[in-house]
Hints:
This protein has about 240 residues and is an alpha+beta fold.
Amino acid sequence: MIKIVSFKICPFVQRVTAMLEAKEMPYExxxxxxxxxxxxxxxxxxxxxxxxxxTEEGIPLFESxxxxxxxxxxxxALQDGLSPETRAIxxxxxxxxxxxxxxxxxxxxxxxxxVLNERISKLDKSFDRAEKQLSDGPYFAGDTxxxxxxxxxxxxxxSAILEKASGYDMxxxxxxxxxxxxxxLKTGIAEKSVPEDFxxxxxDFYLSERTWLGRGANENEEDADxxxxxxxxxxx
Length: 236
């Protein structure tokens, strides 16, 4: 059976597990502490990062882009009959999502509203491109969940959690992306692709007192600044 080595709130891991869930492929998962990486992991991971996929033959694969391509090659495609050009376009749109995972992580850790506004502008550009590309949906390429949907799922899932917890909507002004988010979350893949305590772990890290979102995005600016001065700030 395929094995995934993971960190519980890593969006790159969720992209991989979401694909496995969508394809209904069995796998086992082992979580590690990235601050205290086990020796066995460092011995088989060239870059010391998650996700790491260990094949049934015991071969370790790294980098999420390479891992999802491998999964695609050993399994039935989610969408049939795609031309080489369409598959290339879908890979490009998937990359548009994955290269913004860390941008979203950084944005969610913003210590005050000014920092958040500065960082969210990069995400806005990405969501705006998706908004212009999306058609009638419900998914990126029509009626069937595909690779692009799964690549964007971590961004859309985390945006939904943030909105529910803090009232801050990363997708405000992007109605097609918002509808896409709703459709994807209704599939249940998001919950299946993360551990049971994901929301708790995620909230402890990104919605703590040290972040503006954690203190409540609906606070007025004076209150947020006051809370920030007491918190001692945080790293970016």
